[in-house]
C-alpha cells in the first residue's frame, strides 16, 4: 500500500511538471564566459596586437580573462588593460627583435611561441614558490604578475624576460637536443630545489636554485641568465661561486655557445649583446 501511494505521488508530480511547461515559456539565457558564444568589440589594444604580433608572426595574445586557459585551482586576477601594450612591446623588443636580427624571420616564425596568455596576479604554489610563467607544448606561454609591471623597475622587467627566454630555450632544445655531456657537468639535481639556497646551488655549478631541478631546466636557466643579465651580470654571478664551481660554469657556457652555433647558426655572444642593448634602451 505504501509503494502504491509513492507511485501515485510521483505520477502527479510528473504530470504537474508537464502542465507547468509550455512552448511559450522562455529559458533565461545566462552567459558563462569561456564556454564560447561571447563576442568582443575590437579596440585599440586588439588592433595593436594584430599589427605587432598576429599578422607578422601568427602569435595570438590573450589578455581578456579566460578561466579555461589557466589552472583551475589557483586564485588569479586579469591583467590590467593599460599593462598589455607595455608588456608585449617590451617582449617584442627584447626577445623577438634580437632573435630575428641574429637568426632571421623564418627561424623566428617557425619556432616562436604562438600564444601568449597574460595574467595580472602571480600564481602562488603549495611549496611556497611563485610561478611567473608556464609553457605548454612549446606553443603557449602564460605570464603572471603583470599588474606590477613597470619599465622603470628593471629587476622586475629582467625577471619577466628571464621567463620568456627560459621558455623559448625549451622550444629550441626540444627541437634539437643539446650535447648530452652537459648533463654530466653538475650533480645533485633534485625536485626539492627550493629547499636549498642560491649559494648552495652556485656551489654545485647551478646558475639559479631552479636550475637544480633537472638537466633541461639547468640548460635553459643558463641560457636565460646569460642573455638577460648580459656578459657583465652573468660573470658577476659566476665570480660569486667557489673556484671549482666556476670551472663548471665555464664548461656549460662553452657547450651553450657551441650548441647555438652548430644547431641554429646563431652567434650566442652577438645575441647576448642584442638582448642587452634592447633592455638598456627600454
TrEMBL record:
SUPFAM superfamilies under this entry? Metalloproteases ('zincins'), catalytic domain (SSF55486)
Signal peptide (residue range): 1-22
Example of a GO MF term: hydrolase activity
Read off the InterPro entries from this record: LP_HExxH_w_TonB (IPR030890)
Name the domain of life: Bacteria
> What keyword terms does UniProt attach to this protein?
Hydrolase, Lipoprotein, Signal
The molecule here is called Substrate import-associated zinc metallohydrolase lipoprotein
| Gene source species | Chitinophaga ginsengisoli
Amino acid at each position: 500500500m505504501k509503494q502504491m501511494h509513492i507511485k501515485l505521488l510521483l505520477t502527479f508530480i510528473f504530470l504537474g511538471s508537464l502542465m507547468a511547461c509550455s512552448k511559450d515559456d522562455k529559458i533565461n539565457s545566462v552567459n558563462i564566459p569561456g564556454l564560447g558564444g561571447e563576442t568582443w568589440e575590437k579596440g585599440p589594444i586588439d588592433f595593436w596586437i594584430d599589427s605587432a604580433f598576429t599578422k607578422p608572426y601568427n602569435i595570438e595574445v590573450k589578455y581578456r580573462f579566460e578561466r579555461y586557459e589557466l589552472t583551475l585551482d589557483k586564485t588569479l586576477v586579469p591583467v590590467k588593460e593599460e599593462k598589455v601594450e607595455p608588456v608585449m612591446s617590451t617582449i617584442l623588443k627584447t626577445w623577438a627583435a634580437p632573435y630575428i636580427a641574429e637568426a632571421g624571420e623564418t627561424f623566428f616564425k617557425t619556432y616562436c611561441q604562438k600564444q601568449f596568455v597574460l595574467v595580472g596576479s602571480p600564481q602562488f604554489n603549495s611549496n611556497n614558490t611563485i610561478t611567473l610563467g608556464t609553457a605548454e607544448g612549446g606553443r603557449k606561454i602564460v605570464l603572471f604578475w603583470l599588474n606590477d609591471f613597470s619599465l622603470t623597475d628593471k629587476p622586475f622587467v629582467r625577471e619577466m624576460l628571464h621567463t620568456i627566454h627560459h621558455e623559448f630555450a625549451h622550444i629550441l632544445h626540444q627541437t634539437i637536443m643539446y650535447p648530452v655531456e652537459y648533463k654530466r657537468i653538475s650533480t645533485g639535481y633534485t625536485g626539492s630545489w627550493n629547499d636549498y639556497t642560491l649559494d648552495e646551488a652556485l656551489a654545485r655549478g647551478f646558475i639559479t636554485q631552479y636550475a637544480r631541478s633537472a638537466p633541461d631546466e639547468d640548460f635553459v636557466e643558463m641560457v636565460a641568465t646569460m642573455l638577460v643579465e648580459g656578459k657583465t651580470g652573468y660573470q658577476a654571478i659566476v665570480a660569486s661561486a667557489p673556484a671549482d664551481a666556476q670551472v663548471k660554469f665555464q664548461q656549460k657556457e662553452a657547450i651553450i655557445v657551441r650548441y647555438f652555433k652548430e644547431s641554429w647558426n646563431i652567434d650566442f655572444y652577438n645575441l647576448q649583446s642584442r638582448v642587452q642593448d634592447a633592455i638598456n634602451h627600454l
